[in-house]
Amino acid sequence: MSRGGPERSRREYERPRREVVTSPRTTAARHPRYPVTREIDEQTRLGEVYMRSLVRTQFRLALFVCTVLACVVGGLPLLFLLVPELREVLVLGVPLPWVVLAGLIYPAFVTGAWLYVRQAERNERHFAELVDRAR
């Protein structure tokens, strides 16, 4: 017989037997979580907050682009008024103010529009990521 044989078996006998308690419910009750897209679709207060943030961001972007373009376009007559020598400069026989107004303003508008669309799409991507993360 091994050392401590009877003592060891007596100690094991005296310990209460462990019981494993199981339940058919394996998860605690959870509150149903609605996706943010559903909040937006149903026009709840939370959905309104999300949409208001997107609209506000897009509005700020539009205001910024329009302000920059208005300063450039509105600043040109002021520049030609304050620096009269520029009015007399000829480029290929055409006065500089006409060259700037006819040839450079439209590319500035196109560039501004391109930058606006690019940034607006980026804002929408960030919004979509925010909505997906909140799910």
In short:
The chain is mainly α and 135 residues long. Helix content is 68%, strand content 3%. It has helices at 5-14, 36-41, 45-82, 96-133; strands at 90-91, 94-95.
Give the topology, please.
Blueprint: H1 5-14, H2 36-41, H3 45-82, E1 90-91, E2 94-95, H4 96-133
Helix pairs in contact: 3-4
What spatial form do the alpha-carbon principal axes imply? Answer: rod-shaped
Sequence of strands across the biggest β-sheet: 1-2
| Radius of gyration over C-alpha positions, nearest whole angstrom | 36 Å
Largest sheet: 2 strands, antiparallel
State the end-to-end CA separation.
65 Å
- Low-pLDDT stretches: none
Report the sheet-strand fraction: under 5%
Helicity level, as a percent range? 55-70%
DSSP summary: helix tally: 4
The averaged pLDDT comes out at 78
Structural class: mainly alpha
How many strands appear in the DSSP assignment? 2
N to C succession of SSEs: HHHEEH
